[in-house]
Amino acid sequence: MSIAGKRIEKAQEALDTAQIDSWKSGLDFVIKNANAKFDESVDLDVVLGIDASKGEQTVRGSVLLPNGTGKKIKVLVFAKGDQEQAAKDAGADFVGNDDLIEKISGGWMDFDVAVATPEMMPKIGKLAKILGPKGLLPNKKIGTVTENVAPIVNDLKKGRVSFRNDKGGVVHASFGKVSFGVDKLYDNLVALIKSIKAAKPASSKGKFIKKIVISSSMGVGVTLNPDEVV
What we know:
By secondary structure, this protein is an alpha/beta fold. The chain has two domains: 19-68 and 161-224, CATH 3.30.190.20; 75-158, 3-Layer(aba) Sandwich (Rossmann fold). It is 34% helix and 21% strand. The chain has eight helices and nine strands. It has helices spanning 3-17, 23-32, 81-90, 98-105, 121-124, 128-131, 149-158, 182-198; strands at residues 41-48, 60-64, 75-78, 94-96, 113-116, 160-164, 170-177, 209-216, 222-224. A four-stranded antiparallel sheet has the order 7-1-8-9, covered by helices on one side. The chain has a three-stranded parallel sheet with strand order 4-3-5, sandwiched between helices. Strands 2-6 form a two-stranded antiparallel sheet.
């Protein structure tokens, strides 16, 4: 058995006897059992009570985590004129218009999130098949299509994360690093869950947040009570 396999097996054995009676105790377990040689991300999986096959029940949104994500995010901005300069001043990593569209069309994808002004969206439409499947297409609903790019660039750099359910009706997101400690991770988790809850579609009936599982990037999943905060 590999070292990683033994580590997971040991963590699973510890989980089987652990007393996980709150979100904070769940986070404490995740932190104490994260034994990789790097600062692991802490990840969230939320099973939603939606019919993911129905477009009107898509759950998507974004939230500025109070303690950031612990990750350096590369932000790309499609803009012209004053907004192009505003994006640069706000700290965007890549700023341009036709040149960036051509570069991405050629296969370049060295960025984590894309922002655009409304005037650029007709041209960016040709990139939909490239950016869409990767969740990188700018979208007004999550604030990445805007007339004023500086605030969203600032937020993204500080730790704004976007979420969207997958085909199985599950939302996946990272909300910090093991090194944050329990309290900072808890604040981030509460903010993220509340934002997901606020994105509940009107057509979704019954229990919306059905299951919450957290884990470090190399650790075992810990199930939390979905009713503790929401």
